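Query structure, 193 tokens:
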């Protein structure tokens, strides 16, 4: 963490040695937040929209790896599973049409809130601050066409995790197979507006 640009670190508590190291970083705000409130599982997420309310179940669950399906010829390694699952967790917190790029358990690019999924992919790739060879990409929803994943694959992304469920899933999987990339279907989407 000391090698990355950070402005703020919030944790429930800190090991004394870790705190000493973090305090050496100039201009870093270190906060302790011991108050952890769990939201009731049954509580729904409510948003105001013009003329009414959007009411949806909270997206609190994260599927286990055993519930996911590798759909490409190439299977992720243990290290790669870490990046895939990390990107998937981050995508849960990003606005709809979310694309998250991760590498070495760090977020390196995010594209969100776009009208089309391919635009979100392009934005995430453009925002990436590291070479993307070996990176993972998570999408909060399925890819309706292979063009979105192709942009990421062309940029060097090797791993993709997404819900699946498009009528053109086979085209998306074929694009990954041609590129030698691994793709995982979660069979469950994230949805945050």
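Result returned for the query:
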């Amino acid at each position: 963490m000391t090698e990355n640009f950070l402005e703020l670190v919030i944790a429930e508590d800190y090991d004394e040695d870790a705190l000493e190291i973090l305090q050496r970083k100039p201009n870093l705000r270190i906060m302790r937040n011991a108050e952890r409130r769990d939201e009731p599982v049954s509580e729904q997420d409510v948003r105001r929209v013009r003329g009414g309310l959007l009411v949806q179940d909270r997206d609190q669950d994260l599927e286990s790896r055993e519930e996911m399906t590798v759909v490409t010829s190439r299977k992720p390694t243990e290290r790669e599973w870490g990046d895939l699952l990390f990107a998937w967790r981050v995508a849960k917190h990003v606005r709809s049409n979310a694309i998250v790029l991760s590498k070495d358990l760090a977020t390196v690019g995010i594209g969100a809130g776009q009208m089309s999924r391919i635009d979100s992919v392009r934005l995430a790739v453009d925002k990436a601050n590291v070479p993307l060879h070996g990176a993972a990409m998570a999408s909060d929803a399925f890819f309706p066409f292979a063009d979105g994943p192709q942009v990421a694959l062309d940029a060097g992304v090797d791993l993709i995790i997404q819900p699946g469920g498009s009528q053109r899933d086979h085209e998306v999987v074929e694009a990954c197979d041609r590129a030698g990339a691994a793709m995982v279907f979660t069979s469950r989407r994230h949805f945050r507006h």
